[in-house]
What we know:
The complex is a heterodimer of chains A (377) and B (322).
Chain A: H1 2-8, H2 13-37, H3 43-63, H4 68-86, H5 94-123, H6 137-144, H7 146-177, H8 183-191, H9 198-209, H10 221-228, H11 242-269, H12 272-280, H13 285-296, H14 298-313, H15 317-322, H16 332-341, H17 345-376
Helix pairs in contact in A: 2-5, 3-4, 5-17, 6-7, 6-17, 7-11, 7-14, 8-11, 9-11, 11-14, 12-13, 14-17, 16-17
Chain B: H1 13-24, H2 27-30, H3 38-62, H4 66-71, H5 86-93, H6 101-132, H7 138-147, H8 153-166, E1 168-170, E2 173-176, H9 186-208, H10 213-221, H11 226-237, H12 239-255, H13 258-263, H14 271-281, H15 286-306, H16 308-320
Antiparallel strand pairs in B: 1-2
Amino acid sequence: MSAFLAWISTLPALAQIPLVLLAFFAVIALLIFFLEVAPRTGRKFTIIRAAACVLIPGLVFLTLGSVLWAAAAATLFGALFFYLDYRSKQGAGYLFQLVGFLSPAIFLLGIGLIYPTIQTTIQAFMNSRGTRFVGLENFIWIFTQDTGIRTVLNTVVWVLIVPVVSTIFGLAYAVFIDKSRGEKFFKVLVFMPMAISFVGASIIWRFVYAVRPAGQEQIGLLNQVVVWLGGEPVSWLSNSPWNTFFLIVVLIWIQTGFAMVILSAAIKGVPLEQLEAAELDGTNAWQRFTNVTVPGIRSSLVVVLTTISIASLKVFDIVRTMTAGANETSVIANEMYSQWQGFEVGRSAAFAVVLFLMVLPIVIYNARQIKKQREIR
Amino acid sequence: MTATVPAKIPVDKKTEKQLARGEKLGAATRTKKRLTSRGATIAALVIAVLWTTPTFGLFISSIRPPEEILRNGWWTIFQNPGFTLNNYTEVLAAGNSTLNLAGAFINSIAITLPATIFPLVIASLAAYAFAWIKFPGRNWMFIGVFALQIVPLQMALVPLLSLFSRGLSIGDVELFASLNASNAYSQVWIAHTIFALPLAIFLLHNFVSEIPSELIEAARVDGAGHGQIFFRIVLPLTMPAIASFAIFQFLWVWNDLLVALVFADGRVAPMTKLLAEITGSRGQDWNLLTAGAFISILVPLIVFFALQRYFVRGLLAGSTKG
Lengths: 377, 322
């Protein structure tokens, strides 16, 4: 396989796309063919199945460039698997299909997520070259020096502000434009930043924040507004701690559209009868909103808040492009990358683990909410 | 109209007018009623303007001559008119020693298309198995896959990179050889495929499991195996869901910077990476930055405006169903 990939990488970029897609679809077509004939009875199909069981594992290992006897072992396991499948209680071919459907995904998840996660966790307790066990040293390093603490604190600030503010803006906007004329158009305007890359958004906002010395004409919109109001131009991105807030604005700008679309759909799901009943009881619009609408969209609110929280915990691109972590704006993901570039693999891994521990409670909470929601349904 | 608005509710003049207007608009809008006030409308307008102005300013600046961009703000374009496309030609040729932005644009396409299709196919296979093949431990395994979303990308990047470049050996036994792909797209494709899988499997499972079981049973009675059911029934029926997730995956890969920084080096770097680099090295060349940024957001914006409906549907499916 590496030979194929090496060969294909010598081709021009646009020629690689159809070729690699063709190769991929050929493999998938073969897989589906095997899956299709697997449950059929008859000697011919049994032989096909047996051949597939024995040959495929060996071939996979060979194409991955493994040593010969590992491939031989795989072939042996394949034969064993064929026997198990042949004697399966659900009928011959059942296990074969199951494995055929699942193995590509499980294999990729194994090498791409499960193995690396374990590896990173181990590395977090090793020295910079990964040769010696150093215990908690990397974590102590993070939490004892100013930049490390600053980095973690900044991440906490991000995760506290971004979800709340974008949800509030998104919700308010969704309520304001709900059932109005041109609602779709209004939605698109705010939703559009979702499609823009974080890098693109960062450049857009760097331009808004651009600063010129006092007396010169400003080219950044924000400073121009300040000057119009009679103030002095401010260098928004270099004064700590406020610069972090100006970076946060960018993520809020992006995520509000997300919150707005989800919440708008949820608002439309609030039963009209409830709103009308409240209206007949003489409540005003604000009371209806807090007592009927908000409880009605509670589960969507939780989803929006948690999703944006996770996004802001992992924020990287914005900080990287706008300040690269200078002037005390660094966040965990950025610091992790910087440490890795500086060949401090242990510290980099420790930052990743800290991030993991911060994401964990949010995801667990989210999963439990989803489960609850399912039980109600 | 009277069905939805009780007659005695006091409404102000504006609302009355709007109600009357709504009635004229025909049956489709008749059930709509306008509760929002003038203040809300103004607030919505303010938000809408705030949210679009930065992008608009970027676009205006990108077509102004460089000296004008540096001399005065884009909002003075009427006092200082000037129009040029030179920024675009210049930025497409800008870059580092191995790559310019035009090449990076091609790279972005070459990375994004396969990295969108691979995970969808693999995930739909797995989603089918989780939904329609009964096996012990199915629920636990599915929850396990869902739980993998916890893992921040950051945790997986570095070990995966070393797996690609050095292979995997247990003791002296080499299980994988290295991919030999340090200057190729393949490792970016594989990385994006893997990172997309947990969410893709989860979302597609939601759709695949909603197919009426009678349909699957009927096909089974007619003698179709899992392969045929998947290819002939499940795949066509879940196409809308697959399409909406495909848009997401496309935007996500196109806009990604972190994975690109780690896996796509040298001459295969996508546009986001090169732009970030240019921002770092030529941060005050606003004519280049604005034009470059606009090129990079052009494709996502086209995709977004053309396929907006699917995009929103995918978003809603993803969040309200879990």
